Amino acid sequence: MEYIKGIDVSHWQGAINWEEVAKADVKFVFIKATEGTSYSKLSYFKENAPQALAAGLKVGAYHYAKFATVAEAKGEAAYFLDSISSFALNYPVVLDLEENKKKAKKKTLTDAAIAFLEAIEEAGYTAMLYTGKYFLENTLDESRLTNYALWIARYNSTLGRSTDIWQHSDSGKISGISTKVDLNIAYRDFTNTINTFRTHNTRALKTETSTTYTVTKGDTLSFIAKNHKTTVKSLVSLNGIKDPDKIYIGQKLRLK
């Protein structure tokens, strides 16, 4: 399977030579912007995001979540969005949800995650959820999160499930970065799905009104369903699809 190489960084990586990173076959980077409702290292994002963009990388931002309720999630989302709003990000904007220290129930935590992701979309960004494989499958209600792009961490030789991006190592070495760094591979080509990326606070592009859609590189049923105001279940039924994870480039799908 074809994939695209990327990394994610935070202040732990220190000073980065982004020109060297770009030469190392790295195509995208997620940079930590915020955490909770106050983050002392926000300046790291503000300094590095423009440099990474100038080096030609696709750049997204992520927020490390502390919330356990919808109200807390909305507060954290507001802080995050305000912090990144002045940057011309050209890759998904991410909710990093990997802890449940307050022991919220599965429904409560999933409600909160959806509230955060909806806030990202309402602000005009492409929303993505980052989490661990076990956390997703046991602490969250994954069935309610299928409308969002997914980035999963699992440090193993295989992931063992579908995802859009897989964080497969936390100990990579990349030219231009002196420390170990997280390594990722993207199975969906976000760099080419330009209609899903919108400048902060601009209006979303209108969804096609056609009754059919031809699958292109990087598409998933959940992605197609979201963009055409339908559901994966409906697409599966209309098109006689046996395995929702298996669609192919050039396949024509009925939407209605």
TrEMBL record:
Q: Which CDD domains match?
A: GH25_LytC-like, LysM
Which molecular-function annotation in GO is an example for this chain? lysozyme activity
Which keywords are on file for this protein?
Answer: Glycosidase, Hydrolase
List residues of the LysM domain. Answer: 211-255
Please cite one Gene Ontology biological process associated with this protein.
cell wall macromolecule catabolic process
Name the family the entry cites: Belongs to the glycosyl hydrolase 25 family.
What is the name attached to this protein's record? Answer: LysM domain-containing protein
